[in-house]
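For reproducibility, we list the full input for the zinc ion complex.
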Amino acid sequence: MKCPQCGSDTTQRLQVVHEQGTQLINTTSNTVGTGFNASPLASLGLAGARTKTTGTAQSAMAQRAAPPPRYPVVAGLGVVLFGLLCLAGDGWAKLGGLALMATGLYASHWAHAYNREKWPALYARWESSWLCSKCGCIYVQELN
Ligand SMILES: [Zn+2]
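The corresponding predicted structure, in tokenized form, follows.
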């Protein structure tokens, strides 16, 4: 794959760049104290601390190469639920609840439509996108 801008051969698929730059963090670090000369009070605190860290770390490049996001339909539905709760109130709360429900319904409908109609094409485009490591440009090229 040659970069259309600079003609360099050192190109990588965005998907690969993204995966390589994303590290799954799943480490367990043990801190064990040596309590030989410590006072009895201090040794109580030296039983050992266990720290678990989970999550992902991304390089700046991996973030740039990230796939197009899907919009969470659930978020809109959450707003609808909150609006429902507001209906239990009176006066302005009811009105606000109705407005929230309408907004939430619209948002979730929009997200659903986006995920179904627009997102697959964006994702397919991302899958055939390449990153040139020489000039840093991102271009689309189908694999033959
Ligand atoms: Zn290039």
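The chain is about 45% helix and 20% strand. The helical segments are 14-21, 40-44, 60-64, 73-86, 92-127. Both points were considered when choosing residues for closer inspection.
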